Amino acid sequence: MKQKMQPKVKNKILPFCLFLGICLICLLAYSRFNVLNRIDITHAGDYLNAQEFFEMTKDENAVILDVRTPEEYNNGHLKNSININFYDTATFNGFVGKLDKNKDYLIYCRTDNRSGKTNLMMKDKGFTQVHILKGGILAWTLDNMPVTK
To answer: For the chain: N or C, fewer Cβ within 10 A?
Structure first.
């Protein structure tokens, strides 16, 4: 009598574990670099809430930069702010290149994304006194701070 041969059951656990391990390594690598990018943007400068930012606008040495578009600026801006459109790259870079590195810069945009990127660029160019309005003009208006039209 012939014995019936049982088909070999391949060990499927090992390849599955390898697959999970590779996925985990990829996920960790991605999140590590992603977290580092977020840290660079959110911790590279001095983020101030609306009240702190307002107090710093009183400093005669401070320059207030609004990096929104001209249309956004015309809808309401901080008193004495200078509008320089972040998206007009050539003009923007030329303007920043001419700024005095010894002054204090107060930067804001709509939510703090463009101002955060501006901060990184200025830090790379040697600026040391750069402050960002946390939450941008949206946070500013939510705190009932003054806006000029």
So the answer is: N
